[in-house]
Structure formats: structure tokens, C-alpha cells
């Protein structure tokens, strides 16, 4: 996600709600580089919950209709809200979504949210315009899902006007993320793996469109930071015109033995002008989708399979095995096993004098009632009643006598009553305990929620306090920077620019390059001490081709792809459609990869640009006074000024130079010999002693050996005066 904002009042906090299960760990980590992120909804990616991508991300499982959602809105006061409807990615809507939207608009209105961005589905455009004789113009939707989605968008527009909340509706197609666990594409993969068959309910020539979460977030950030827009609806498509036939063929290539079938129905098309919609969203928000999901289907399927075939740990397997045996099954098993044990013991203890006053049956009933509650206790009593009846029959007591003789009823009544009473007492105790535990869990959950909100607010307060103090202190720093950069000598500007950038940005990986007239090579003009041994003195523009166009357009480059070959930040001073200077930061900590830091870097570089351009104008104005007529040799006064500036840079450790005294004292002859031999950054001048000198900037002993051979070939003799 390579994004740059020029808006100093850009939002600091966004809230994501609705169907947020599409966001994975990497995507949220990218968003957190720009904003504090509040997620209110069901997050599917376990990695997000186990180890948060950033301290700036806070997750709550609340929907807009719940009381805690209003507290979240009040506590964090988000500048912008992103709501994802249940119809995105071919969904059928969320439960009570209309009520959720009404509650969301109410919360946005109360908390003065600057913008609500609603992500809907392009299915709302599956209709034909019709003209009824009685009802007038109406939309004839192709199916029920399209009608429901369209009605939801109408409700959003109505609430936007009624609650006076600026609302931007973005209609998207199918969504694809890195793992595709909760997406239409993931369900398609799962069906294909299990059945080896995919049945598309569309014509094979029907267009299919996918947008990656990365592209969607790029668009959302652009919409969020745009302050001059108004409420409206846009359709965001990838721009790749793939058909279901092409999609099916790519699936076959990825999944061996897959059978794909299509419907023979007519083609469906959205009620929009695709080119016009692409133009509108590009002009208003500068959005152009980059990822082609269908072309990258093989890699996408590989990531999905890798996620699915991950081996389960021993702990997960044991937990899964334990889940198969319910609590009721365990109680039933204990009931039967203990009953069998008691029956076995009764065979050997009935006629024993030691067990004359011990009733094992009653003991069994009491154990089951006390251990497992009322139902197992009564069942145990009934089992022992059956056991006692069998025992009576074995001693010659008939069933008729057993039924009509009241004297035999007492043991049966005792068994059942004992099981019921002991079980009731245990069940009552367990219910009270469960209720108390549930109450404690509820209170603990509320406490944890309020505590997390409180701690997050404290963190935000400290961050805002730090930013306010930084803003207050920055005026003095900027004023000091302006004074130090006020010079008519470019070399002084470079050395002071390096120290200013290092001090204010707290970064010691600064480098300033100058570019030749043909825009082919960058020459290292000055850099931080720590970078002197790491950087080469000359770099081909092809090595920086990835950022050249961005810099030429006047924007600041930010290396969000973390390419080791490129600097983390870069800014260019341009003139006449060409780059004159490039100011870079090669290293940046995680805390320095935010929008505030990039804006601060841009401001300081702009100050250097203003001073440098003013110095160039001054140097051009005195061009005729600086050089001997018709030569590139500086007169002693100006050569001394440049020499002192280079010595200052060398002493500061931001640049290196070598001073050569030329054997030939003739101005015209030296000028003629030197043409084409030295770089545009090297300086040829006359000393106060009447001798000619050559100042080689950013030159080492190794480079001097190469240059020296070139000089000797032209018959130019010299003596090294400084820099070795």
C-alpha cells in the first residue's frame, strides 16, 4: 500500500464495523500505519486476536445496536467510520442490518463523525429501468438479493440526509484477501476440493470481477483523507474484464480434476457505464486498482491450501476429542458402571453379617444424587427399585404380593425420595453457583471492556499530548532551520540541511544527491556520517527508477513495500521538469513510518528546496562575475568561498573532498584541457597565490587514482594539497 497524503488535517482515528471478517493481519497492520484503528465486530483471523498487528488497533465484538458501541464511539471519537454491509462479496445481508444502520447513523450524528463510508455490493445495480403506467419510473431488479441491497442503499441515503452525516457509498464486487477463509473465493475453493465440481449459475461469457482487500483499503484511505468531496455513490471495479469462462479455466489449472459447469441463461449487466464510473472514482479519489485476482489465482489457491492443511497440535487434538464426549454422556456412563459394580457387590455381601446394616443400594442412590443432581439421582433410585424387585422375586415374593402388600413399598419410596432430595439439593446448589459465575463473568467482561477503553483513552491522551508538545516545540525548530538554511552558497545549505534533518527527524541516515543534466546519474553531494561508508558516490537513475516518476510529480516517496534497495523516504527538488536534487532517508523505525513523520520530512525538505532554489538564482545572477571570461575557472574570491564551504562539510563528516594544485598556471590552457574531464559537481578555480586549483567533491584516494591517470593522459600535472 503506497499512499501519500498532503492533507494536514487528515483523520487520526477510524472505526470499522459491520462485516469486518474480511480483514486479515497484514491488511490491518498496513491501515495502522496511517490511523488509530477501532474494530467493532466479529474478526475471523485468529492471528489478529492473539497478537495484535499494532498497538494502535483495538478490537471489540460489538454491533451498533448494543449499548457498548455508543460508549466506544464516545470514548474514541473516530473521525471517520467504515461500515461494511452484509451484501459485500455476494453476502445475503446481516441480521437486523436496518436497525444497525439506523443506530450507526445516530451515533455518527451525536459524535459529529466527519464522514461515514459505506461499502456495499454491485448487486444493487442488477436492475433494468422500467416505466409503469400507474407508478411511474421504477427499478426492475433481477433477483431478491439485488432488491434488498438496493433498498439498503436507499435507506442509507435517507438517513444521511435526515441525520446530516456526509456519507460515501462504495459498491464493490467480490472481495479477495490473502487466505480467503471467509470469502466467496474461499467457499469456492472449499467446494471444489470436496466435490471436485463447481457449478456457476452464470453464463460462461458473463463478466466476473474481484477486488483485493489491499486495493479496497487503498481506496478507503483516499476517500477518508479527501475533505472536499460530498455525499455520493461510486462503483469500484478492478478494471480487468474477465469472464466466468476464463475464471473457470484458471480454477481448472489450479485444482486437478475439477469439473466446471455454467448456466445457459442470458448475460447480466450492471445498470452503469463502466468507463464513466472508473473516470469518476479516478478523478475524485485518484483510485486505480492494481491487483488482478483471476490472473493470480494459482498463488491465491496455494495460500488457501497452505492455511487449510496446517497440522493440528496435540493440544488441539485433545480438545477436539474431549468435545466429542458431552457431559450428559459421561454422567450416563458413570450411572451404568457404578450400578453394575453395586449389583456385583450385592451378590457377595447379601448373606454376610458385616453388611447386615449396610444398604449398598441406598449408598449408590445417594452418591449419584449428590454427585450429578436430581435427574441422575431419580434414575439411580429407579434402577435400585428394579434391582430390589428382582431380589424379592428371587426369594419367592410374587409380583402380586409385592404390589398389594404395603410393607414392601417402603424401601422403594426411600430410594426414589433419597435420589430426588439429594439430587434437588445438588442441582439447586449448582444452579446458584452457575448463576453466580455467570454474573461474575458478566461483571468481569464489563470491567475488562471499560478498562480497555480507559487504557486506550489514556494512551491516546499521552500520544496527543506528545504531539501537542511537539507542535509547540516545532515552531522554534522550524524557525531555527529557516535561519540555518539562509545562505547563498549551496554547499552551506547542504551541510546545514543534513544537520537540521538529523536533529528534527532524529534520524542519521540522510543523504542528498544532485542529478546531472541528462537525468541519468545521481551524485552523492552530502550524507550523514553513518552513511558515508555505506553509500556509493555515483548511482544510476535506473537503480531508483521505481521512485523517479513519483518524485518528478512533486510527491514524497514512502517505501511501504520495504524494498531494501530503495530509501524509506525520498523528496526531489525539481526545476523545468527535471530533478535537480534528491533528499533521502535510508532507514526509519516502525514509529517513524507514519503520516505525521512523512509530513514533517516533506516540510523540512521544502525549506531546503526554497533555500537551494534561491541560492541557485543568486549564483546564476552573478554567473559572469564568478568566472574568468569564457572559462569555467572561478575567480579567487568565489573559489575561496566554495573551498571553505567544502571544508566545513568535510569537518562535519557529511562529505569528502580533495584539493589539487595544478602545475599549469595558464588560465586559458587549463580551461581547455579540463573540459570534459571533470564532473559537474567538481570546481576549478584560481587561488590567491595565482595558481590554478581543482576541488574534487565526494572523492576518495581510490577514485583519485583513476582520475589521475586520465589527467596524465592529457598532460596535466598536479599536487595533492588537502583531503588525503
Q: Key terms for this structure?
A:
disordered N terminus, alpha/beta, 724 residues, seven-stranded parallel beta sheet, 23 helices, single chain
Please, could you describe this protein's structure?
- By secondary structure, the protein is an alpha/beta fold.
- The protein has a 7-stranded parallel beta sheet with strand order 3-2-1-4-5-8-13, sandwiched between helices. It has a 6-stranded antiparallel beta sheet with strand order 18-17-16-21-20-19.
- Helix 4 (about 95-110) packs parallel to helix 5.
- The longest helix has about 80 residues, at about 410-485.
- The protein is elongated.
Strand order of the largest sheet: 3-2-1-4-5-8-13
List how many beta strands DSSP finds: 26
Let me know the average pLDDT.
Answer: 82
Whole-angstrom Rg: 40 Å
Portion of residues within helices: 40-55%
Give me the secondary-structure category.
Answer: alpha/beta
> Tally the helices: what do you get?
23
What would you call the shape? elongated
Main sheet makeup: 7 strands, parallel
Which spans have pLDDT < 50 for at least 5 consecutive residues?
1-10
Distance between the termini: 46 Å
Strand percent estimate = 15-25%
